[in-house]
Amino acid sequence: MSDMSDTATTRGRPSRILFVLPVLLFGVLAAVIAYFMLTGRDPRLLPSTLIDKPAPEFSLPPIAGWQGRKPGLATADLKGKVTVVNFFASWCVPCLAEHPQVMALSKIKGIQVVGINHKDRPAAAKEWLTRHGNPYARIGADAGRAAIEWGVYGMPETFILDKTGRIRFKHVGVIRPETLKHKLLPIIRDLQK
Amino acid sequence: MRALAALLMLVMVAAFVPAALAVEPNEVLKDPALEKRARNISKRLRCLVCQNQSIDDSNAGLARDLRVLVRERLTAGDSDKQVVGFVVARYGDFVLLRPPVNAATFVLWFGPLLILLLAGAGVFVFLRRRRPESAGAAARPLDAAEEKRLDALLADDGPGS
């Protein structure tokens, strides 16, 4: 009798590892998924290659028919102050969602908020800004090339530049109130020192 | 029945549409050699909006802009490498559908090979460990107690039962 139970355990040994293995694999998978869910990191977001590099060379005209109201935007305009560069368009619904946060940014003393109006009809852009408020000190109208220069692949995207015109931070997608409070504002405060 | 016919039609239409529909006629360069180079580069660049299509296949606005940009730079006399470098400088290595071999992509390139080797080693160890064990069990002669039990069992199984 004791002989039989002995052979059973020796045969059972390799298969016991096989039983534990799926559980271990599941544990690893669950940990990876939990990491992305709990940290709120979106694996589809790309790391920007432009961080810590000077702003790209570009020069954009103002929104057509709005020359008197807001000047256009070029690389030289991004120096001297901490600058927030916000890509937006009137056709972009998430841009409207982040608009109150951009307005809040524009009220901060000592920094400048500028806009790049991406692939928009001038009339639609003007109407959008009139209706919802204009947070931008300068607006460049972009047909698409400036977005490529900035490595932008979706609307909206926001960059923060230090006083020398170097890109220090990039946010892809909507600036939510908590994004503003916990990410953008601390960085701006830091760069203003 | 009608749904089936509709589905069949859809499949047929899909089969006859050329794959390279995304490249619009007005984008095509006049010089066929240059256009061929542009197509080759476009196939290697990822459309960042759709992420799993090349800019050559994608109808997204950004993909179109990048196709036009590739052609502009080629016309301006850039080499293929310079054009790809221009896009990578702005969007990073992710824009390349075939990622380059470097420190960051090392696991991506050699991970599968490592897993294959580990799995192979596992199978090897498993088979080696199993074979002598089962062969030994079969070859071991019965000891006295087992002999006795076997005799008892055989005796028990007489024709009378």
Quick summary of this structure?
The complex is a heterodimer of chains A (193) and B (161). Chain A has 193 residues and is of the alpha/beta class.
Overall pLDDT level of chain B: 83
Tell me roughly what share of residues is in helical segments of chain B.
Answer: 55-70%
Helix content of chain A: 40-55%
Amount of beta strand of chain B: under 5%
- Based on CA inertia axes, which overall geometry of chain B fits? elongated
The CATH superfamily of the largest domain in chain A is Glutaredoxin
Number of helices of chain B: 6
Explain how this protein is built.
Chain A has 193 residues and is an alpha/beta fold. Chain A has two domains: 1-41; 59-192, Glutaredoxin. Chain A is built from five helices and seven strands; from the N terminus they run αβββαβαβαββα. Chain A has helices at 2-39, 93-106, 122-132, 145-149, 177-192; strands spanning 59-60, 73-74, 82-88, 111-118, 138-142, 157-161, 167-172. In chain A, strands 5-4-3-6-7 form a five-stranded mixed β-sheet. In chain A, strands 1-2 form a two-stranded antiparallel sheet. In chain A, α3 (122-132) links the parallel β4 (111-118) and β5. Mean pLDDT of chain A is 87; it is low at 1-10. Chain B is mainly α and 161 residues long. Helix content of chain B is 63%, strand content 0%. In chain B, α2 (32-44) crosses α3. The longest helix of chain B is centred in the last third of the chain and has 34 residues, at 106-139. The relative contact order of chain B is 0.07. The A-B interface holds A 3, 7, 10, 14, 44, 46-50, 56, 119, 144-145, 147-151, 153-154 and B 48-49, 51, 61-62, 65-66, 69, 88-92, 94, 126, 129-130, 133, 137, 146.
Name some characteristics of this structure.
heterodimer; A: 193 residues; alpha/beta; Glutaredoxin; 5-stranded mixed beta sheet; two-stranded antiparallel sheet; 44% helix; B: 161 residues; 2 domains
